[in-house]
Design brief:
It catalyses: ATP + protein L-histidine = ADP + protein N-phospho-L-histidine. By secondary structure, the protein is an alpha+beta fold. It folds into 3 domains: 147 residues, Beta-Lactamase (2-Layer Sandwich); 106 residues, Helix Hairpins (Orthogonal Bundle), CATH 1.10.287.130; 152 residues, Heat Shock Protein 90. The protein is 56% helix and 17% strand. The protein is built from 9 helices and 12 strands. The strands form 3 sheets. The chain has a 5-stranded antiparallel beta sheet. Strands 7-9-10-12-11 form a 5-stranded mixed beta sheet. A hairpin with a 2-residue loop joins strand 3 and strand 4. Helix 1 runs antiparallel to helix 4 and helix 8 packs antiparallel against helix 9. The two termini are 49 Å apart. Bound molecules: adenosine-5'-diphosphate (ADP) and magnesium ion. Magnesium ion binds next to helix 8.
C-alpha cells in the first residue's frame, strides 16, 4: 500500500475509534440520565398512589380507581400494586398478581428499590399506615425515553459516518500534499542512469527529511560519478601499460625476422624483449595485487599480524635480494605487552604494501641503504621507511598515491605508478594511514601509522 494511503487510513482509524468511544460514553450517560429520570417519575407515582389510597380511608376502592384513572396522568403501560403484610394485592387487584413474593419481600427489607426487566422499569416503596404496612410497586415502560435514546444513537452514528469520510478525505489530501516532494524526487531519480551520473535531484528547501534524502542521494551520485571516472581512467591507463610492452615486443620480433641476423643482433633483440617482458610482468603483478586488495574490501578476513615479526622477515628478504646491511632495521621502542604489536590484517597484503614502499626506496636511490624504523607503544605502531634517493618534488607529494601517477623525475626508472596506489589502499583497508615527507635530491621518508 502507498504511504499516503497508509497514513490517511491510520489517521482515520485512530480518530474514528476515539470518536466512537466518546459517542458510546455520551449514549451511556444519557441513557442513565433518562432511566433515573423515569425512576423518579415512577417513585412519584407510587407515593401519590399511596397517599391517595391509604389516606382516603372512607372512599371506596372502586371510586378511587375511577378518580385515579381519570385525573392522574398514567405512565405508558403503567402497573401499580399494593401488597399487604401477607403479600396479597389490595386496593387494586385483578387476576394478575404481577410481582412474586420474593420481590415484595425484598422491597420490604430494603424499604425502597429500583430495578428493570427488559424495557420495563419498576420502583418499589414501603409505606407505614394506620391501616397496616404496605409495599407499593409501580412499573411502566419509558417509550418516549427509549425513542429519544434511539434517535440519539442514529444521529450520532450518521455523524460518525460523515466525520469519518471527511477525515479520510482530508487526511489523504494532507498526506498527498506532504509527500508530493517525494514523488518529484522519485521521478527525478528514475532519470538517473550510468550514462548520466552528472544529473542531480532537486534538494528543495534543505530543511526537511525529504531534502536530506535528496541531498544524500546527490552525494551518492557524486561519489559514483567520481568512482566511474576513476575507473575509466584506470582502465585506459592499465590497457596502455599492458599494450605498450607487447606492441614493442611484437615490433622488435617482426623487424628481427625480416632478414637473417647475426648472433649479437639476436642477443640484443632478446635483451630488449626481456626488458619489455619484465615491465609487463611487473604491471600484471601490480594489477593482480590490486584485484587481491579489492577482493579483500568486499570479503575482509583479518588475522592478527605481529609487525616486528613481519619486519624481520622483510629484512631477510631484502638482505638476500640487495645485500648485507643494505636494509637497516632500527627498533626505536617496543611496548611491554607483545599483544600491542599485533595489527588485525592480512599478512600477505601487508607484506605487499611494505614491499612496495621498500622497493621504491631502493629503486629511487639506486640501491643506497634504506632505513626502517619501528616505533610501537601502547597506542601507536609506526613504521618509517627512509631512503637517500632522488626525492619527490614538493608539488607531487599529494599525487604519488594516485593510480598510474609517476613523478616527473623518474623517467629513467622502471615502473608503472600502481605501487603506492595499491599500498595506500591496503593500509587504509587495515585502518592505518600513510604519509610522505621528501627533500628532492636528498631522500624520502614514508610513514605508516596504525592507531590502536
Ligand atoms: N622512495 C621514493 N623516492 C622518490 N620518489 C618516489 C619514492 N616512492 C615513490 N616515489 C614517487 O611516487 C611515484 C609512484 O610510486 P609507485 O606507485 O610505486 O610507482 P612506480 O614505482 O611504479 O613508479 C613514483 O613514480 C615516484 O615518482
Ligand atoms: Mg613502485
Amino acid at each position: 500500500m502507498k504511504i499516503k494511503n497508509r497514513l490517511s487510513l491510520y489517521f482515520t482509524a485512530i480518530s474514528t475509534v476515539v470518536l466512537l468511544i466518546v459517542e458510546i460514553a455520551i449514549c451511556i450517560t444519557i441513557n442513565s440520565i433518562i432511566k433515573s429520570d423515569f425512576y423518579s417519575k415512577l417513585s412519584d407515582r407510587a407515593s401519590v398512589a399511596a397517599q391517595l389510597y391509604l389516606e382516603a380511608d372512607e372512599i371506596s376502592a372502586d371510586s378511587l380507581n375511577h378518580v385515579r384513572g381519570r385525573y392522574l396522568q398514567r405512565l405508558p403501560d403503567e402497573v401499580v400494586r399494593f401488597y399487604d403484610d401477607k403479600n396479597a394485592a389490595s386496593f387494586i387487584t385483578d387476576k394478575n398478581q404481577y410481582w412474586p413474593s420474593s420481590v415484595i419481600n425484598q422491597v420490604r427489607k430494603f424499604r425502597s428499590m429500583e430495578f428493570s426487566e427488559g424495557a420495563r422499569q419498576t420502583v418499589g416503596i414501603y409505606y407505614n399506615d394506620n391501616q397496616g404496612n404496605f409495599v407499593i410497586l409501580a412499573s411502566a415502560i419509558d417509550h418516549a425515553g427509549n425513542k429519544r435514546l434511539n434517535d440519539l444513537v442514529k444521529a450520532l452514528s450518521f455523524l460518525l459516518l460523515i466525520v469519518t469520510i471527511a477525515l479520510f478525505t482530508a487526511s489523504r489530501w494532507f498526506a498527498q500534499k506532504t509527500l508530493e516532494p517525494i514523488d518529484k524526487v522519485i521521478s527525478q531519480m528514475r532519470q538517473v542512469r550510468v550514462g548520466n551520473l552528472s544529473l542531480r535531484v532537486d534538494e528543495g528547501n534543505g530543511k526537511d527529511e525529504i531534502s536530506a534524502l535528496a541531498y544524500n542521494f546527490n552525494q551518492l551520485l557524486e561519489h559514483l560519478e567520481n568512482a566511474f571516472e576513476l575507473q575509466e581512467t584506470f582502465v585506459i591507463n592499465a590497457s596502455h601499460e599492458l599494450r605498450t610492452p607487447i606492441t614493442s615486443i611484437i615490433g622488435e620480433i617482426e623487424i628481427s625476422l625480416n632478414k637473417q641476423r647475426t648472433t649479437t643482433e639476436y642477443e640484443q633483440v632478446l635483451l630488449s624483449i626481456l626488458t619489455d617482458a619484465e615491465r609487463l610482468k611487473e604491471t600484471i603483478t601490480s594489477l593482480l595485487e590490486l584485484a587481491h586488495v579489492d577482493m579483500n574490501y568486499t570479503h575482509p578476513a583479518f588475522k592478527p599480524v605481529a609487525i616486528d615479526d613481519l619486519i624481520w622477515e622483510l629484512n631477510d628478504y631484502w638482505t638476500a635480494r640487495i645485500g648485507k646491511s643494505m636494509f637497516v632495521v632500527n627498533v626505536l621502542k617496543l611496548p611491554e605487552d607483545p599483544d600491542k604489536l599485533l595489527i588485525p590484517a592480512n599478512r600477505q597484503l601487508l607484506t605487499i604494501a611494505l614491499n612496495n614502499i621498500i622497493g621504491n626506496a631502493f629503486k629511487f636511490s639506486e640501491n643506497k641503504k634504506v632505513r626502517c624504523d619501528l616505533y610501537a607503544d601502547e597506542n601507536y605502531i609506526i613504521v618509517t621507511i627512509a631512503d637517500m634517493g632522488i626525492g619527490i618534488p614538493a608539488d607531487e607529494l599529494e599525487k604519488v598515491f594516485e593510480s598510474f601517477y609517476r613523478g616527473a623525475n623518474v623517467k629513467g626508472y622502471l615502473g608503472n605508478g600502481i605501487g603506492l596506489y595499491v599500498t595506500n589502499k591496503i593500509i587504509t583497508l587495515f585502518n592505518g594511514s600513510i604519509s610522505v615527507n621528501s627533500i628532492p635530491g636528498q631522500g624520502t621518508n614514508i610513514k605508516v601509522t596504525f592507531v590502536r
